[in-house]
Amino acid sequence: MAFKKDVVEIIEPKDVFVGNIKAEVTLEEFGEYESEACAKANEVVKQLLEDYDGQIRFNFRHFPLTNIHQRSLKAGEAAVATAQEGKFWEMHNILFANRRNLGTTSLKLHSKEAGVNSKKFLDDLVNATFGWQVQGDLKEGLTRGVKDVPTFFVNGERVTGKPTYDELSKAIDAALKKLKKKTPVKQVKSTKQKQRA
User: What is the pTM of this model?
Assistant: First the structure.
């Protein structure tokens, strides 16, 4: 007798957004949690989400530089684990706030702070249950030419220069402008024309 194995749907990092989920402008970052530059960029992103409220959505992809930051891979896995309970963004911000304290035990404590109640969290970390998702992000980043973190894209186009508020907002403004040009303007009949029809 064959046993039916339950198929568990894993929420991938590429499918986790904050901001207006239906926004036509996507700001995407390849980064990692031990990087000081990524932590600074995270503050810029928070400001952009506030200033472009309703117009953009943000997606964080994992690009752990394990040759420099040994704990960045496990931190990425921990973030993916919390995404399974809808707590990715809470964990994301907690990890940046505690970027010098990302050991396995600390990650478990951070997950509790983020509101995760999974009894399997530590087991999942130890067994690298979500390692494939982090590796998938890393592989995609390499395919798209990412070499360092943070690297940003707006609607798939790489943002050159430093990830400052000015640089990123210029790229977002350009994407919004491009969308306006594509949107056809509907001609509205005047009330007199409507009455005659």
Answer: 0.87
